[in-house]
Structure formats: structure tokens, C-alpha cells
Write a structure and sequence with these properties.
about 375 residues; 2 domains; 17 strands; about 25% strand; globular; binds nicotinamide-adenine-dinucleotide; binds lauric acid; binds zinc ion
Amino acid sequence: MDVKAAVAFAPSQPLSIETVQLEGPKSGEVLVEIKATGVCHTDAYTLSGADPEGLFPAILGHEGAGVVMEVGDEVKSVKVGDRVIPLYTPECRQCEYCLSGKTNLCQAIRITQGKGLMPDGTSRFSLNGQMIHHYMGTSTFSNYIVLPEIAVAKIREDAPFDKVCLIGCGVTTGIGAVINTAKVEPGANVVVFGLGGVGLNVIQAAKMVGANMIIGVDLNSKKRELAEKFGMTHFVNPSEVEGDLVPYLVDLTKGGADYTFECIGNIKVMRQALECCHKGWGVSVIVGVAGAGQEISTRPFQLVTGRVWKGTAFGGAKGRTDVPKIVDWYMNGKINIDDLVNKIMPIEQVNEAFDLMHKGEVIRTVLTF
Ligand code: NAD
Ligand code: DAO
Ligand code: ZN
């Protein structure tokens, strides 16, 4: 079938809206009509050419929501008409990783997904006979996509696509980092570095679980007002702190934070986030994705004396199990997504959406088809 997609032909080039050919679902796969998709920094990172796994030409996008239009043989968990969120971290419930109970990093389709292909080793997208790669197993910048059944989360019928699409990445990552990865307990003191789409979700989850101090750190003081709305209790702009940020935060938390979250992707900040943790028990979670080839460092004595360094992908969430619950939380008013969506635009304005993101003027732009 012919589909409408924003194609990335080469690194650092604007995306081009094209009519692309898409092959239908095979056994165990579904065809999904994408209704809305967020534009995230990870799409921009790959488009920039800095992503060592980035492949071109490709159809980017990984924060989408849509409707199942067709199912292949053997598909059991979804049917035509179901609303779904595509999962860049699938959940097969059968592989060693899924069965471990210790991780959300299902490996069932990892190898082909990393090569921009479907599990049978082919791409379903082509343009005038030229193969186009899938991206993160999702490619939500296309109005129709084909996905393995294990990479879709079925969600409720009344969920609005242009809000719950963010549950496909930023919302789940931030909330899951708090609940699944750090397991923040009531009364804990928390520091969140970076108050973008991910950091704001860390803040709202920290508030939800009953954290005491929720300190937000951002170089952009314009982020303060919205972060307070999400539950931030204290704001720190590092450029306004006299002296070193780490002792300042240790003083503010009276000995160090119980939990810190790096939601920027800056390796210097990752070190600060670890070192402002409380001696003996503080846990620091790396959420931000650093540039290719970069390395983190600290003095090993920081770990010897009880601080713990962790990381999280998709907030440790198991997509088919956890994503429908997070949609329910939004629909029941338990979490705020509306204030994260600053602009809704048609897919034709995808390059404008990237510009807005680079200027730091929006938390998220959502594209519709
Ligand atoms: P964003 O750009 O919207 O937010 C980053 C914030 O950090 C901005 O408010 C910016 O002003 C602030 N900032 C930048 N440099 C800073 C510094 N040195 N000190 C303090 N504040 C600083 O980004 P986002 O969408 O919230 O994503 C955050 C990070 O999380 C990105 O690296 C993204 O790739 C990553 N991410 C990771 C996962 C995962 O599964 N681990 C999922 C989604 C996104
Ligand atoms: O299983 O080896 C693996 C890789 C899983 C990829 C997880 C993605 C990590 C987060 C990247 C940013 C998401 C937008
Ligand atoms: Zn699995």
C-alpha cells in the first residue's frame, strides 16, 4: 500500500514528506495506522548523524499511538480496531530476559531491530524500489507501520492519541525511572537534573510516590514554573550557584539526596548527580543518553562509600504490561500529560517541530496525520 511518511534520506538533512510503499503484515505482525507521534531528542540525535547505530534512509519516530488496521496469522493479543502504542522495547514474555523478572530489555527481536529491519530480516518500507529502514522498530513518522505483535501495547478505546502517544517514550521513561528503577519511597529527597519532557515525568512520579524534597536543576530558569506545577519543591539554576554545585545540593538535602536522576545526557552532570547522593545509600539513575563514545567517571571511593550508579531504558517498563496502566493513570487524572504537549501540527511540519525542539521552546510537539 502507499503510505505518507517523513523520510530521513541522509544525516543532517531536513526530512522529506514522501509517498512510500509499505508491505502488509506477515505472521505474528500487525498493521497500525499512526494517528499521532511525539518528536523526541532521540529522533534528532539519530538524524544528526551522531548515533553510531543510525541508518539511512530511514523513517524516524518512536513516540506514537494509533489503531490496528489488519492482523497477520497467529496474532492473538490484539484485533482490528484496537488502539495501541508501538513499543521500541518489546515484551515477548518468552525470552530469557523477559522470564528473568530482572529487566525490561526483551531481546526477542533485538538483532533485526538494531539493523532497521523486521524480525524476518526484511524491511517493509520502500520508495520506488529503494529499501528504507525501520527505526527503533517503530517508525512513527509514517501514517501506517507494520509491527510484530510483541511490540504493541493495547490501550483503552477512549484514550486521545495526541496525548497518550507520549507514553510511548518520555512519560513512561520518567515515571518508570522513579517507580521501577529507583523505587523511590515516601519521604525520600530527590534531585532531578534536566526539566524537559523526561525530567518533568520524574518529578510527577516522585510527587506521586510521596517524596519529600523534589529539587529540580536546570540551566534554563524558564523551566521552573511548569516543574513546580508538576510537583518540584525547590529549583536550582547551576549558573546562579556560587561555587561547586555538588556541596550546594548536599547542604540543601542535609547530607545528600536519597535519589538523583540525570535527564540531560551530559556526562559531567552524571558525575554531579552521583556525587550529590547521600553517603551510604544514595542512588543515582542515568536516564539521559550521552553522545557516542563518551564515558562517565568518578572516584571509585564514591561507590565504596555506598552510593549506587544505575541506568534505565524506557523506565524499566515492560511495555505490553505497564503502558496500558499508565494510560489509565492519565485517563483517571493521576498524571498530567496535557501540559507537556505545547504544539500539535500536521506531519508536513515535521522540520518545524525539530526546530522548535532545538530552540528549547517546547517540551513536546505532537505531529498528526
Ligand atoms: P530535553 O532537552 O527536553 O530536556 C533537557 C533539559 O536539560 C532542558 O530543560 C535543558 O535546559 C536542561 N539542561 C541542558 N544542559 C543542562 C545542564 N548542563 N545542567 C542543567 N540542565 C541542563 O530532553 P528530554 O526529552 O527531557 O530527554 C532527556 C534525555 O533523556 C535525553 O538525553 C534523551 O535522549 C534521554 N531519553 C532517555 C530515555 C531512556 O530510555 N533512557 C528515553 C527517552 C529519552
Ligand atoms: O536491548 O540492547 C538492548 C537495547 C534496548 C534499547 C533501549 C533504548 C534505550 C533508550 C534510548 C532512548 C529512547 C528514546
Ligand atoms: Zn522477551
